[in-house]
Design goal:
Blueprint lengths: L13 H18 L10 E2 L15 E4 L14 E4 L3 E9 L7 E3 L5 E4 L8 E10 L2 E10 L5 E3 L1 E5 L5 E2 L5 E5 L6 H6 L1 E5 L5 E5 L4 E6 L8 E6 L5 E3 L2 E3 L3 E7 L3 E6 L4 E6 L2 E7 L15 E4 L2 E3 L2 E4 L15 E4 L2 E3 L6 E4 L17 E3 L1 H10 L5 E5 L18 H5 L11 E2 L1
Length: about 425
């Protein structure tokens, strides 16, 4: 929203401001031509009570009145050549306001984010010069791009309650060339702001991770101000996107593979500790990965088969196909915490699985019911480390390495909700 400040206009100036606005609009129409990209300043209004018609107006608006095909990533800038600004409002044709910021000396106002493509905007401004009201207005249109991009998906989902390790994953519907411009448009607000950073996985996906796990009860809102952002030559964002979510309790589990045990802590307190059976090892494909995993999703049931090993022949002794109950996924390479009634005798005694964490039906059902996406499952004691890009293994990267994946090469310091 435009900053109103503390400057007050006397009531008897209301008519004067209205007259000044009308005069400025007429002057702008007659004095400014169409065309251009909105990068050059032009006369957009004339002061009420100016000494002579040729005097330069005290308020200058860029883009100029009548400009067409203005680049959406151009900023609207309103400058008080003389005096100060009182109020600036920039509206799209549908009445939506473009937020902006007033300088501390009230001499300049500029939009904070990019503009929507293919949209007509109206700028209304008022000010004060030597005790007298001034006003200026302008109307211009942004260009219609050759191509557009948008946000295809965001995790978490709107309104979702997540675990303390949950990343924010933004997926675009086409590759982004100017990653810095797009990253700059991603605004984060939090109930208790914490430092974090974005990291690009590829041209379509960018992930935010706080420096440390989220505080319990944290409320987070992502606003992707991508409308009008230039992602590549001729490609601009078509619309903004906003998603809000909340962080649940700190549910952090530890799977100790050598000890065949899984311990679940909630907000630092041990709530369950049970025997499990992990990967039997002997080969990399049968070895459970060690590291900080996140719960990515869950399903009941999940069909698990030997196809992941390339074994599809039913006569092969390695062949299997099972309907598995209460399965919670913790990596992209097929690792789950799930019910395994066939290995109950081994749980707590030996590791016999193909890499998953096998648990009793009772515990698996409980864990399935309690788990949120983004809960932490740390596995220790194997010689196969979890790759940072295996599922949501993002916490495997040290903070400085994670931050280096940002196009802006700097941490994010969110605003407050």
């Amino acid at each position: 929203m435009p900053h109103r400040g503390n400057t007050r206009i006397p009531r008897n100036w209301t008519a004067a401001i209205a007259a000044a606005t009308l005069t400025a609009a007429l002057a702008a129409v007659s004095a400014c031509g169409g065309g251009g990209d909105g990068t050059d300043g032009a006369r957009a209004g004339r002061a009420f009570g100016a000494a002579t018609p040729s005097a330069s107006p005290p308020i200058l608006i860029t883009p100029a009145h009548g400009a067409r095909a203005v680049r959406p990533d151009s900023r609207v800038v309103v400058t008080a050549r003389r005096g100060t600004l009182h109020r600036v409002v920039v509206r799209a044709a549908d009445g939506t306001r473009a937020p902006g910021r007033m300088s501390s000396d009230r001499r300049t106002w500029r939009t904070r984010w990019t503009l929507r493509p293919g949209t007509v905007y109206t700028v209304d401004s008022t000010g004060v010069e030597q005790g007298r009201p001034t006003a200026a207005t302008a109307r211009f249109a942004t260009l219609r791009p050759q191509a557009a991009f948008g946000v295809a998906d965001v995790a978490p989902r709107p309104g979702e309650v997540v675990g303390v390790g949950m990343p924010i994953i933004v997926t675009f519907d086409r590759p982004v060339a100017d990653r810095a411009a797009v990253e700059r448009s991603l605004e984060l607000r939090m109930s208790r702001p914490v430092v974090g950073a974005w990291r690009w996985l590829d041209g379509r996906r960018v992930v935010f991770r706080p420096r440390r796990f989220w505080p319990t009860g944290q409320r987070v809102r992502l606003i992707a101000h991508t409308a009008g952002v230039r992602a590549a030559p001729g490609v601009y964002g078509r619309a903004d996107r906003a998603v809000g979510f909340r962080v649940g309790p700190a549910r952090i589990s530890t799977v100790d593979v050598p000890r065949h045990r899984m311990t679940v802590r909630v907000n630092g307190r041990v709530v369950r500790s049970v025997g499990i059976s992990a990967g039997k090892g002997g080969a990399r494909k049968y070895t459970t990965t060690s590291g900080v995993h996140l719960t990515m999703g869950k399903a009941d049931p999940v069909i698990m088969s030997s196809a992941w090993m390339g074994v599809t022949d039913r006569d092969d002794p390695r062949y299997y196909k099972k309907k598995v109950r209460h399965a919670v996924q913790i990596s992209a390479s097929g690792e789950y915490v799930h019910a395994a009634p066939w290995s109950v005798r081994a749980q707590g005694r030996e590791n016999v699985s193909h890499g998953c964490v096998n648990a009793s039906p009772e515990f698996a059902r409980w864990f399935f019911g309690e788990t949120l996406r983004g809960d932490v499952v740390t596995i220790i004691g194997t010689n196969r480390p979890l790759e940072w890009n295996n599922g949501w293994g993002y916490w495997q990267l040290p903070w400085r390495v994670w931050q280096a994946g940002s196009a802006l090469k700097r941490p994010v310091r969110p605003g407050r909700l």
